[in-house]
Amino acid sequence: MWLFLKNLLFTVLVPGFVAGWVPWVFLLRRAGLPAAWTLRHYAALPLFVTGAAFYLACLWLFGTNGRGTPAPIDPPKRLVMRGPYRWVRNPMYLAVLLFVLGEVVFFWHLTLALYLVFLASAFQVFVVAVEEDALRRRFGAIYSDYCNVTNRWLPRTPKPRLETVAPFDARLR
Question: What pLDDT sits at residue 63?
Answer without folding.
Answer: 86
